[in-house]
Design a protein that fits this description.
The complex is a heterodimer. By secondary structure, chain A is of the alpha+beta class. Chain A is built from 4 helices and 3 strands. Chain B is elongated. The chains are: A alpha+beta, B mainly alpha.
């Protein structure tokens, strides 16, 4: 089962009400919103209506909001050997 | 004197919005990029549906009728038909919302 990853790149402001309605139906409220939908003809038809505004990729599995956030987070540059609380256990 | 409603030539008089007659080469470049982006979106959808063994009438028509960016003539990329303009062509940048609408085909012969 594959999915469409749809990201709104250009805003629908000022475009016909029908176009804006498609954006709303797909859950694309603000620019850079990403939504996932299973590949189907009805979704494909909706994307064709807004093809100038979106970026579309075919992916094998959808990502949750938390996963998308985590994937954007940069590498912190360190790793934790031992937590401070654990290091102090011997002194209590 | 300052601010949004200051007295400038475009605001105080009639029609003095100066939209250049032709596109700059950077505008043309971005226009080509946009055309290619739409082409990739359509190709992605088509591939995804084909992998599931599906297709759409709308998609078949698009593939049959619409030229991709590489197949289009420069005339069609940067100008559009307009019956009110001398020689029936105007720059595509005069079309309202021209960066967010598709306008690829023009009447044959014009």
């Amino acid at each position: 089962m594959s999915y469409f990853r749809i990201t709104l790149m250009r805003s629908g402001i000022g475009l016909p009400q029908k176009t804006q309605g498609v954006l709303k139906a797909l859950g694309l409220r603000k620019r850079m919103t990403t939504v996932y939908y299973p590949v189907s003809q009805s979704v494909a038809g909706q994307i064709l209506r807004i093809k100038e505004l979106v970026d579309v990729k075919e992916v094998s599995a959808p990502m949750t909001k938390e996963q998308m956030r985590a994937s954007r987070r940069p590498d912190p540059g360190y790793y934790i050997e031992q937590k401070a609380g654990e290091a102090m256990w011997g002194y209590k | 004197m300052f601010g949004a409603f200051r007295l400038t030539n475009p605001l105080s008089g009639g029609l003095l919005w100066k939209i250049p007659w032709r596109l700059s080469r950077h505008q043309k470049y971005r226009q080509r990029e946009r055309l290619r982006n739409v082409d990739t979106v359509v190709a992605t959808i088509d591939n995804a549906l084909a992998r599931q063994g599906q297709s759409m009438r709308k998609m078949e028509r698009w593939k049959m009728e619409m030229p991709v960016e590489q197949e289009m003539l420069p005339k069609d990329k940067y100008t559009v038909f307009d019956r009110k303009v001398k020689r029936y062509r105007k720059g595509i940048h005069k079309v309202p919302k021209w960066t967010r609408v598709s306008q690829r085909l023009n009447p044959p012969g014009f």
